[in-house]
PCI domain-containing protein (Diacronema lutheri), 286 residues
Amino acid sequence: RPYERRAGMDVFDEGGAPELQQFVLLAQSARGAACAALIRQVLAHPKVFVFGELLAVRNVRELAGTEHTPALALLNTFAYGTWSDLAPAMAATLDLPMALKLKKLTVVSMCASEEVIAYDVLQKAAAIDSVRELEDLLISLIYEGLLRGKLDQRSKHIKVAHAIARDVHPDELPRLAAKLQAWRDTNTGLMAALEGQARAYKDEQSEQAARKAALQQRVAQQMEKLRHSAPHMDMGGSSVGAQDGYDLDEDLPMVLHGEGRRLGGRVLKGKHPPGGSGRRAHEDFR
């Protein structure tokens, strides 16, 4: 639902855009004075805070240059402006609900661009006389879902967490488009950098795998050379003369270091295999 009661708070959906639709439909058939009267109804509506779609209606635009131009100017002020943009003569035509709404829109606009705003700044911008009146307005905005933040009564400021977006003036579109393009370019650059790092990582992993495979191949070749350097041993590494006590897989490290070397607390027994000493076998392995 566009408007609902949730946890004791009035929550608006998109600044009252759904409520605006009924006025947009009516404006398509209203002309002249009827259209101007419809605009005032919209501006006084307690749930409508966006007006862009109404401004796009042809009958509303055609009020320009007629006796109803002030109604169109007032609608533009509510859509894009703040209290300070309101001419004194126009301010005199506002009823209480309309004046309160424009003050709310003024506060929302300021809160959308600042994280912490002093009370006196808001009071001056929205023509609010007392701190009590300002706090009541801020609390109303929070309960209506137009603003989220914390009031600091001791320091007399509000810390803003979120404020609804207002209508964007057509003159602002090029600037917004430029900002979006800059944001897109930045993201494109970041993506390219991340992809480059990912490729470099994959290449490094491939190189490490290739070096590991080459090293394993060299080790296997050296082991095979050692096996051939002991012709009296079979391929399983056991001695043909088992009485000599050789086992190639078990005693190879000690063969490489010479007869009688101690390894792991055990002394190699037996003789060096024919074909070279343990030192020579060690040199062959190297």
